[in-house]
Amino acid sequence: MPVIERVIKPKTHKGKKAILSREPKIIEDTKQTLFVKGLKTTPALQQCMKDLYLLKRPEGKLLHKRNAIHPFEDATPIENFGRKLNASLFMMISNSKKRPNNLVMGRLFEHTLMDMVEFGVENYTALSKFRVEKIPSGIKPMLVFQGELFENNHEYVRIRNLLVDMFQREKVEQIRLQGLEHVLSFTAHENSILFRSYKVMLKKSGTRIPRIELVEIGPRMDLRVRRNKLATDDLFKQACKKPKELKVKKKKNITSDSLGTTHGRIHMGAQKLNTIQTRKMKGLRKTLAERKAEKKRKSLGAESADESSKKLKVAEENVN
């Protein structure tokens, strides 16, 4: 027998608005991130999660209760949290003898687990340890990825894609120079990813272009790659698919380079420079001698044509 799904109809305007906000859109809202605690954690690991939450605010939701969740064995609780709180990204911390200082980053697609990566947090330095001026909340960071593994290794390519999804924030069309204040650096080195956070300082240089300095503001940590559960190529391709309304129609003979400059190609026929109409300038007019010579050439040509036609007629009469 067919299974009949129960459709929940909203009873209030607020409930209807909440259901409509979760429906698919052509341009999706900014992705929300869940911060979940496992049953056992350490104070340093909790401080690490709080620092990451400060970097993600206001697109983050911090859950204060501890949860008996093991995402690599059963991801159903994470999927339920994501469906309930309308979040597609998550970070989870846990601590055990086998996997100390454990940090799991992952994402959901259509409220089901897509992929996740397990890291071991090492050499952690908290945000409060750096006695420098911090950046305002909600600043869009610049992401820098260094290391050949991010280009050549399939696993690290997917991890880079996950980190971009995790920290990129909303998409913008324009941004002012003073808005480029935050840099997040990820360096792949010996099965680890070195996570660093910097503030961009604009110094005077005596010219219109300021001198750039990077000041580390924290947090700082080394993320040792442990386990991963990556999506299949078909599922990854399906998740990256764009709606038809957002696809830009390709224009013939128009291309763009990596810097965003538009180049156009024009196809022109053979140019007859002798008969082309140009601007009638006084300096380009023919002199009186040139006009007389041209008339003389034309008259000589007409006379020679008449003579040749007469010769042809005489030849035809002789033949007849």
From TrEMBL:
Pfam families: Brix. GO terms for molecular function: rRNA binding. Residues 31-234 form the Brix domain. One of its GO terms (cellular component) is nucleolus. It is found in: Nucleus, Nucleolus. Keywords: Nucleus. The keyword Nucleus applies. It comes from the Eukaryota. InterPro entries: Brix, Rpf2. One of its GO terms (biological process) is ribosomal large subunit assembly. Residues 307-320 have a biased composition (Basic and acidic residues). The keyword 4Fe-4S does not apply. Residues 280-320 are annotated as: Disordered. Belongs to the RPF2 family. This is Ribosome production factor 2 homolog. It comes from Nasonia vitripennis (Parasitic wasp). The lineage of its organism: Eukaryota, Metazoa, Ecdysozoa, Arthropoda, Hexapoda. The gene is 100116788.
